[in-house]
């Protein structure tokens, strides 16, 4: 589990380390007897109101008296902006507003991260109104404190803790893959889930005498935990007679956002419908992997070519299906339902793939060399460099002199080129342009 980071920044001598020690001092009073807690002067675990976090004194991180103060303070702020979840700007209420406070405040503001403004050395709280002039920094309410005596530091910590990222925003269990089974009513979603888990599974909760439907059902498979999200919703759907279409639309909206991979079911006796495509696009646009299961295959009259022809016809109709793996299965007989799980693992592996920056640029240079972007109002549009910035789904940023002038068809060309190079079967990919000169 990674703890959020709170960084303290500000000019020298405003009282950063005094404040830092006060914050960790409170913690020490509680956990002093815990062995193995490493602590150093500049970086320490802390807690307040039940929330745990790290606090960093950037003034202690960057110490180099050879450089001008202005540079030092800016560098501190840069480190803090890069590393921290919440930024605390400490100022000196005795001395009043300083031009350097303005500069740092501007940097912090433009970082977009939450900032708390502390006005320290307010030893005569609450009588002294000196902190009011710090409203001018545009960082919201100035919090008057006296780090020396501790006055006001509780309120300051309350505010800091309020701004910490939600505890449930912590990283997921890496062994877990969240799977949503989606598709129109009656295509066989509940049958598939029941087949995978065994019919009529009921979970008995800890309280004696109560039984309830589990919201999600988990299955261990090849070292991964497959969590089938909202399996209770599938049961509910079976009971809802009217408004089934609407119900399934709302359910899909919700579950695709919560899923890593969607198992999209269609009815093999009916072929793919407009609504099927809409559901699949919902999942794709939400960044989930997609595996298409053509269900009820037991009912389809077929020869050795039927499956291939069907895939070909679907892909001609809907280009993005080129990137979606297709499986023919029967939830009724159990034919190939386990294979669907293998395909989920593979789609998630593709979704987690990282391409080296050098490979990205090799492919990009080749594509741009073969077909450069069209000029925009007489100006050449250049694409200089690209890199993968995240996974799940794989997301690329390409740097251009005129990022807003790259036309949609050219983006499609790059997208198709990336697909030719790396395929990414079963996962959407994203490509963004950013400005660089
Ligand atoms: P930093 O260099 O910005 O980390 O600041 P320090 O924590 O070293 O504090 C600088 C000076 O301000 C020290 O002499 C502290 O004792 C003093 N100081 C810190 N907090 C307060 C306070 O709340 N009131 C007063 N009067 N002095 C303080
Ligand atoms: P859901 O609404 O998508 O959850 O669909 P259900 O799982 O409730 O299935 C709807 C109907 O199709 C039920 O009568 C199932 O028995 C039937 N069904 C589901 N899968 C198959 C299959 O692979 N083959 C056949 N023949 N029938 C199926």
Automatic annotation (TrEMBL):
NCBIfam families: GTPase_EngA, small_GTP. It comes from Gaopeijia maritima. GTPase that plays an essential role in the late steps of ribosome biogenesis. Keywords: GTP-binding, Hydrolase, Nucleotide-binding, Repeat, Ribosome biogenesis. GTP 2 binds at residues 183-190, 230-234, 295-298. GTP 1 binds at residues 10-17, 57-61, 120-123. The keyword DNA-binding does not apply. Pfam families: KH_dom-like, MMR_HSR1. One of its GO terms (molecular function) is hydrolase activity. This is GTPase Der.
């Amino acid at each position: 589990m990674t703890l959020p980071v709170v960084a303290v920044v500000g000019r020298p001598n405003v009282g950063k380390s005094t404040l830092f020690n006060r914050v960790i001092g409170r913690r020490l009073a509680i956990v002093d007897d815990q062995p193995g807690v490493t602590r150093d002067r500049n970086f320490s675990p802390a807690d307040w109101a039940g929330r745990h976090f790290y606090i960093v004194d950037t003034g202690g991180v960057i110490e180099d008296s050879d450089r001008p103060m202005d540079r030092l303070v800016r560098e501190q702020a840069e480190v803090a902006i890069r590393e921290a979840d919440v930024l605390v700007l400490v100022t000196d209420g005795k001395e009043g507003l300083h031009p350097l406070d303005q500069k740092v405040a501007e940097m912090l503001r433009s970082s977009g991260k939450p900032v708390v403004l502390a006005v320290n050395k307010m030893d005569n709280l609450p009588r002294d109104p000196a902190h009011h002039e710090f409203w001018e920094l545009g960082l919201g309410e100035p919090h008057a404190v006296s780090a020396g005596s501790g006055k006001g530091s509780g309120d300051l910590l309350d505010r800091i803790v309020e701004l910490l990222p939600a505890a449930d925003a912590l990283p997921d269990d890496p062994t877990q893959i969240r799977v949503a089974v989606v598709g129109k009513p009656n295509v066989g979603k509940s049958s598939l889930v029941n087949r995978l888990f065994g019919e009529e599974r009921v979970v008995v909760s800890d309280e004696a005498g109560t039984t309830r439907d589990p919201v999600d059902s988990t299955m261990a498979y090849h070292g991964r935990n497959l969590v089938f999200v909202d399996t209770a919703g599938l049961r509910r759907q079976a009971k809802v007679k009217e408004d089934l279409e609407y119900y399934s639309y709302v359910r899909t909206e919700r579950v695709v956002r919560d899923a890593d991979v969607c198992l999209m079911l269609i009815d093999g006796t009916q072929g793919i419908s407009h609504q099927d495509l809409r559901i699949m696009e919902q999942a794709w646009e939400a960044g989930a992997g997609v595996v298409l299961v053509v269900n009820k295959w037991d009912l389809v009259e077929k020869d050795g070519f039927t499956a291939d022809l069907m895939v070909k016809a679907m892909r001609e109709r809907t280009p993005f299906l080129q990137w979606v793996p297709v499986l023919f299965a029967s939830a009724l007989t159990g034919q190939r339902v386990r294979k669907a799980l293998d395909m989920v693992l593979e789609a998630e592996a593709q979704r987690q793939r990282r391409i080296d920056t050098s490979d990205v640029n090799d492919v990009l240079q080749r594509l741009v060399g073969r077909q450069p972007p069209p000029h925009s109002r007489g100006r050449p549009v250049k694409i200089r460099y690209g890199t993968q910035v995240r996974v799940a789904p794989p997301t690329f940023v390409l740097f251009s002199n005129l990022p807003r002038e790259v036309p949609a068809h050219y983006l499609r060309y790059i997208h198709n080129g990336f697909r030719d190079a790396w395929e990414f079967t079963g996962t959407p990919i994203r490509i963004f342009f950013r400005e660089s000169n």
